[in-house]
């Protein structure tokens, strides 16, 4: 534990990451240790956990109680949702989306991974890469999480054997790379003993890499934005119409990708009108350049009709607009999604009517087999969907832009969030999927 | 790429944001999203630090235009006078409209009964929910943070409430990317938490960075307090000290500001923001653990109150 000064604390970066793995893999212990060793668990929280553990007749404090928030979960010993946890070191602030690892909770993992820049996938060194590990890798690949960490846990139970670790790391990395996961870092750990979580392990001097926390602290959080398409979904038009600002008209939004500069020529979609950026207001302060994920207000040369839901893009780098959307989706609602379903589609700041035209296939995550024309998707299903929208949308592929290549489907009747969608191809690599048509007896 | 943008020192890479900038940008995005999608939003404003930061962010989100929301204060009748003064000053300075839902009114009318322990926090739910109904607020900003308490760790940024203001953890919608879903039926409303991802330390660092003025009770001062349930409470007409409790003068400050009857002070000599931040960074207690009696009632206390419509 290092002590931190105010100065050190004030200029750190923020990393959002997600965990995947089951209680059996020691996920709660890993999360508990990260929180505990970085001082995010404080005395009163520990006391509450100790008291609750005692009242259940458990001798040792159950670290899972730190992370299971709701009574229904405590009574049933399950985790029903994504929980968000916060901790900090002198080098970085962390937001952890802690997702349960059971089969039926794919949607939670997808939710947690959607905002994550890194995912930690846990395996038990005694079992190696199992079906669930492959499922976690597939979700990380589908959601295009930039960094993956394979934490090979319980190394103490395999005699800290380098060969065991190397075999698992090799098998997982080959599989994840095939799916297009851009970067995998494998780390041998024992969450229970504390090896390589926060402190380097004395029992594994054959391992020369970083501990889990060191890796989390140093992994890059910003990308080379020079190669990103700049995108600004307009959230709100700011028009004070006051004596001080009679003619101010600014287009407010959070830059979803790339950078914008004063003087740049931009196009407003879907109208296609072009104009020039005359100013950028960064929350009241004029700047020459702004980048994702800053919330800004753009001032434009021409008084053209722009409103919430429009997308401002560089004129030389505009996405195509279309009313036919083809995407990989994860269905997150209890009621199924069926062909012919009338829905609302929210993309960026725009919500339009849409209809489900076709569900070409359902994907089984365990072996990546495709089941053609399932007719419907139920909760936690992942599949391909074709939609027709009532108005044209400027869509990027999710591979190019996680913010402007994603959308959600909403039930127009009760507002339920039905489905998470990612435009374009499922995986970064050539589709590594097997066609399971023969097993299904489908007749084409 | 020839130009290198200005970067905050310490972040190391061009185009990286400091954690405070990232949190600020996210909160502004949430405020603007609500302004774009709702008819009658309101900010819960108590004059406490979290609601002060919320108001500051809302002002920045719409500058140079005024904030397109009104404020709502649920007044327990046991407020610190310094905080009420601050509230009224803020309302006047920014030319805002303030709604007040008063617990005392409900007690005077016999609708609510004073609890034997004198604490009024649990009594806030009814005045709050009835005010939301009568004013037809459809989005209600709260300063709740996920780091505060276990039940809040699962809270959404947009949290749907039915016409009884009830929170059903199983009816909450998954939140994907930054695509918030604010759709609701007439009579329902959405509680919105722009500070969801902030920690206590982030809030204080942001206050320091932005030079935001706070009520004096957040800084060390001498005050007459007495000990109850292991907490230093302010002596006053609300119900203390009682028999066997003795008043003493101590150097204290408040980490949280709520109802006088259940908000405890901490021993402190921190008179500046830097000293407060250093104290929090070194503290071994959460802010609620150190200062809130009402969360200690049971393992599921917060969860139960949230279900009933509490913030």
TrEMBL record, chain A:
<dbReference type="InterPro" id="IPR044138">
    <property type="entry name" value="CysN_II"/>
</dbReference>
<dbReference type="GO" id="GO:0005524">
    <property type="term" value="F:ATP binding"/>
</dbReference>
<dbReference type="InterPro" id="IPR027417">
    <property type="entry name" value="P-loop_NTPase"/>
</dbReference>
<dbReference type="GO" id="GO:0005525">
    <property type="term" value="F:GTP binding"/>
</dbReference>
<dbReference type="InterPro" id="IPR009000">
    <property type="entry name" value="Transl_B-barrel_sf"/>
</dbReference>
<protein>
    <recommendedName>
        <fullName>sulfate adenylyltransferase</fullName>
        <ecNumber>2.7.7.4</ecNumber>
    </recommendedName>
</protein>
<dbReference type="Pfam" id="PF22594">
    <property type="entry name" value="GTP-eEF1A_C"/>
</dbReference>
<dbReference type="Pfam" id="PF00009">
    <property type="entry name" value="GTP_EFTU"/>
</dbReference>
<dbReference type="InterPro" id="IPR031157">
    <property type="entry name" value="G_TR_CS"/>
</dbReference>
<feature type="domain" description="Tr-type G">
    <location>
        <begin position="12"/>
        <end position="224"/>
    </location>
</feature>
<keyword id="KW-0547">Nucleotide-binding</keyword>
<dbReference type="InterPro" id="IPR009001">
    <property type="entry name" value="Transl_elong_EF1A/Init_IF2_C"/>
</dbReference>
<dbReference type="InterPro" id="IPR011779">
    <property type="entry name" value="SO4_adenylTrfase_lsu"/>
</dbReference>
<dbReference type="InterPro" id="IPR054696">
    <property type="entry name" value="GTP-eEF1A_C"/>
</dbReference>
<dbReference type="InterPro" id="IPR000795">
    <property type="entry name" value="T_Tr_GTP-bd_dom"/>
</dbReference>
<dbReference type="InterPro" id="IPR041757">
    <property type="entry name" value="CysN_GTP-bd"/>
</dbReference>
<keyword id="KW-0808">Transferase</keyword>
<dbReference type="InterPro" id="IPR050100">
    <property type="entry name" value="TRAFAC_GTPase_members"/>
</dbReference>
<keyword id="KW-0548">Nucleotidyltransferase</keyword>
<keyword id="KW-0342">GTP-binding</keyword>
<keyword id="KW-0067">ATP-binding</keyword>
<dbReference type="GO" id="GO:0006790">
    <property type="term" value="P:sulfur compound metabolic process"/>
</dbReference>
UniProtKB/TrEMBL annotation, chain B:
<dbReference type="GO" id="GO:0004781">
    <property type="term" value="F:sulfate adenylyltransferase (ATP) activity"/>
</dbReference>
<keyword id="KW-0067">ATP-binding</keyword>
<keyword id="KW-0547">Nucleotide-binding</keyword>
<dbReference type="InterPro" id="IPR014729">
    <property type="entry name" value="Rossmann-like_a/b/a_fold"/>
</dbReference>
<feature type="domain" description="Phosphoadenosine phosphosulphate reductase">
    <location>
        <begin position="41"/>
        <end position="264"/>
    </location>
</feature>
<keyword id="KW-0548">Nucleotidyltransferase</keyword>
<dbReference type="GO" id="GO:0005524">
    <property type="term" value="F:ATP binding"/>
</dbReference>
<protein>
    <recommendedName>
        <fullName>Sulfate adenylyltransferase subunit 2</fullName>
        <ecNumber>2.7.7.4</ecNumber>
    </recommendedName>
</protein>
<dbReference type="InterPro" id="IPR011784">
    <property type="entry name" value="SO4_adenylTrfase_ssu"/>
</dbReference>
<comment type="similarity">
    <text>Belongs to the PAPS reductase family. CysD subfamily.</text>
</comment>
<dbReference type="Pfam" id="PF01507">
    <property type="entry name" value="PAPS_reduct"/>
</dbReference>
<dbReference type="InterPro" id="IPR050128">
    <property type="entry name" value="Sulfate_adenylyltrnsfr_sub2"/>
</dbReference>
<dbReference type="InterPro" id="IPR002500">
    <property type="entry name" value="PAPS_reduct_dom"/>
</dbReference>
<keyword id="KW-0808">Transferase</keyword>
<dbReference type="GO" id="GO:0000103">
    <property type="term" value="P:sulfate assimilation"/>
</dbReference>
């Amino acid at each position: 534990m290092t002590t931190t000064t105010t100065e050190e604390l004030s200029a750190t970066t923020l990393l959002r990451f997600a965990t995947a793995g089951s209680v059996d893999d020691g996920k709660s212990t890993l999360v508990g240790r990260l929180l505990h060793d970085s001082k995010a668990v404080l005395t009163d929280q520990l006391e509450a956990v100790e008291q609750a553990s005692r009242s259940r007749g458990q001798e040792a404090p159950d670290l899972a109680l730190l992370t299971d928030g709701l009574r229904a979960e405590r009574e049933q010993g399950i985790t029903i949702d994504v929980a968000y946890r916060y901790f900090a070191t002198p080098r970085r602030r962390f937001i952890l989306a802690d997702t349960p690892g059971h089969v039926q909770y794919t949607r939670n993992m997808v939710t947690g991974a959607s905002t994550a820049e890194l995912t930690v996938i846990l395996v038990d060194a005694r079992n190696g890469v199992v079906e669930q590990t492959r499922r976690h890798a597939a979700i990380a690949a589908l959601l295009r999480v930039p960094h993956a960490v394979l934490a090979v846990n319980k190394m103490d139970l395999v005699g800290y054997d380098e060969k065991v670790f190397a075999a698992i790391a090799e098998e997982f990395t080959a599989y994840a790379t095939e799916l297009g996961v851009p970067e995998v870092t494998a780390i041998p750990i024992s969450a229970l003993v504390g090896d390589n979580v926060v402190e380097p392990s004395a029992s594994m001097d054959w391992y020369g890499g970083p501990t889990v926390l060191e890796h989390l602290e140093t992994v890059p959080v910003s990308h080379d934005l020079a190669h990103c398409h700049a995108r600004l979904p307009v959230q709100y038009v700011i028009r004070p119409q006051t004596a001080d600002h009679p003619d101010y008209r600014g287009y407010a939004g959070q830059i979803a990708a790339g950078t914008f500069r004063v003087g740049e020529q931009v196009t407003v979609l879907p109208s296609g009108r072009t104009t020039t950026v005359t100013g950028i207001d960064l929350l009241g302060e004029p700047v020459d350049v702004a980048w994702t994920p800053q919330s800004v207000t753009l001032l434009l040369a021409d008084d053209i009709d722009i409103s919430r839901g429009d997308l401002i893009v560089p004129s030389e780098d505009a996405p195509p607009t279309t009313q036919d959307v083809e995407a990989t989706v994860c269905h997150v609602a209890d009621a199924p999604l069926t062909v012919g379903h009338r829905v609302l589609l929210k993309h960026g700041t725009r919500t339009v009517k849409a209809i489900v035209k076709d569900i070409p296939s359902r994907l089984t995550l365990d072996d990546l087999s495709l089941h053609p024309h399932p007719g419907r998707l139920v909760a936690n299903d992942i599949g391909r969907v074709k939609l027709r929208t009532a108005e044209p949308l400027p869509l990027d592929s999710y591979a190019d832009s996680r913010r402007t290549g994603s959308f959600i489907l909403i039930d127009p009747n009760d507002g339920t969030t039905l489905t998470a969608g990612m435009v374009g191809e499922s995986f970064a690599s050539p589709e590594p999927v097997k066609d399971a048509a023969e097993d299904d007896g489908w007749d084409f | 790429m020839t130009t290198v943008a200005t970067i905050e020192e310490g972040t190391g890479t061009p185009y990286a944001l400091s954690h405070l900038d990232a949190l600020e940008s996210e909160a502004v995005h949430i405020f603007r999203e609500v302004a774009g999608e709702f008819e009658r939003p309101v900010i819960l404003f108590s004059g406490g630090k979290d609601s002060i930061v919320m108001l500051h962010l809302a002002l920045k989100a719409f500058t140079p235009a005024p904030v397109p929301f009104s404020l709502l204060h649920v007044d327990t009748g046991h407020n610190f006078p310094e905080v009420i003064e601050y509230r009224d000053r803020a309302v006047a300075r920014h030319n805002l409209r303030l709604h007040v839902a008063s617990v005392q009114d409900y007690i005077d009318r016999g609708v609510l009964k004073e609890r034997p322990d004198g604490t009024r926090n649990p009594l806030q739910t009814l005045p709050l929910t009835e005010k939301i109904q009568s004013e037809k607020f459809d989005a209600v900003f709260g300063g709740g943070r996920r780091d505060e308490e276990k039940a809040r760790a699962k809270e959404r940024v947009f949290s749907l409430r039915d016409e009884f203001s009830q929170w059903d953890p199983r009816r909450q919608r998954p939140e994907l990317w930054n695509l918030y879903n604010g759709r609701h039926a007439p009579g329902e409303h959405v509680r919105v938490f722009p500070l969801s991802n902030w920690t206590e330390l982030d809030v204080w660092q942001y206050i320091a960075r932005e030079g935001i003025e706070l009520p004096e009770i957040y800084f060390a001062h001498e005050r007459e307090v007495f000990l109850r349930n292991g907490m230093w409470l302010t002596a006053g007409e609300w119900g203390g000290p009682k028999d066997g409790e003795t008043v003493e003068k101590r150097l204290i400050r408040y980490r949280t500001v709520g109802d006088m009857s259940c908000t405890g002070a901490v021993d402190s000599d921190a008179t500046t923001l830097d000293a407060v931040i250093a104290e929090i960074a070194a503290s071994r207690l959460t802010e609620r653990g150190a200062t809130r009696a009402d969360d200690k009632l049971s393992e599921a206390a917060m969860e139960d109150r949230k279900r009933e419509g509490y913030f």
